[in-house]
Amino acid sequence: MALFRLRREAAAPSALAPVEALLKGYSIEVMPRTAEKIADFRDLLPRGTRVYIAHIDGTPIEEMVATAKRLNAEGFPVMPHFPARIVKDRATLADWIARYRGEADVKQGLILAGGLRAPQGDFHSSMQLLETGLFDGFERLHVAGHPEGSKDIDPDGSDRMVMEALRWKQAFAERTDAKMAIATQFCFEPDPVIAWAERLAAEGIALPIHIGIAGPAKLQTMIKFAVACGVGPSMRVLQKRAMDVTKLLLPYEPTEFVTGIAAHKAKNHMFGIESVHFFPLGGIKTNAEWVTANGGRSGIPANMEKVEA
């Protein structure tokens, strides 16, 4: 009887099981200046965690490549941003790609328009970058997604251009060998994100979705970044929290958002959200610790002696 009871307990799913499944294989974003503050990423992240490197306007390509080289040496696949609107011309893009590949063995890239309103060179969209053919040979290419729309792309408040761009990218994926996925802006409410993902599927856009999640941070910090990044209606979650005196001084954590997405995915195995991508707005260490505490360790930091079975 005791053996039977033990087997039942072992088979019973953990309350965290859906969250653990969603967080497995998560990715995280850094910038060269934030990466400099981390002595060794192996102390914080599971082996093989994909690390995006955000290319903010004004960041020298030398710093981007050096960060990619360092992370690659520590055992993390890197995915630098290629923002179309800060690329001067085709020659510049070719030079960046050659540096990344030659010096840091980069094989992945996030191709996006970038946050600038006006292009600084010949490109204004991610589609133009993809059309150059210069990313041939990359193993994985991710593109941007906007669950709440983008006023930069659709100033009229619709999502007509955003959806048209995603259809183009779906067609591009179908005619190339690269593994592609959609990496999205961060949001704060699960229901609109779920509805957006299901709409994409209904429209024949089958690219896997890596949903953006804002990592733990002070509420004031979160609101500042949400405004700067153009977060849409789901920002009401933060506004409501700001009005609650009992929560005003507590840090925001993405627990409710992650739990909502995870629960839906557990019930709908064909759901298009494949993974999560963290924006560590409150710091890389804080974000990594939150993921670990919530079962998101898809591996073990390389400098730890314990090995998972």
Automatic annotation (TrEMBL):
Its EC number is 1.5.1.20. InterPro entries: FAD-linked_oxidoreductase-like. It comes from the Bacteria. SUPFAM superfamilies: FAD-linked oxidoreductase. One of its GO terms (molecular function) is methylenetetrahydrofolate reductase [NAD(P)H] activity. Keywords: Oxidoreductase. It is an enzyme of class 1 (oxidoreductase). This is 5,10-methylenetetrahydrofolate reductase. It comes from Cereibacter sphaeroides (strain ATCC 17023 / DSM 158 / JCM 6121 / CCUG 31486 / LMG 2827 / NBRC 12203 / NCIMB 8253 / ATH 2.4.1.) (Rhodobacter sphaeroides). The lineage of its organism: Bacteria, Pseudomonadati, Pseudomonadota, Alphaproteobacteria, Rhodobacterales.
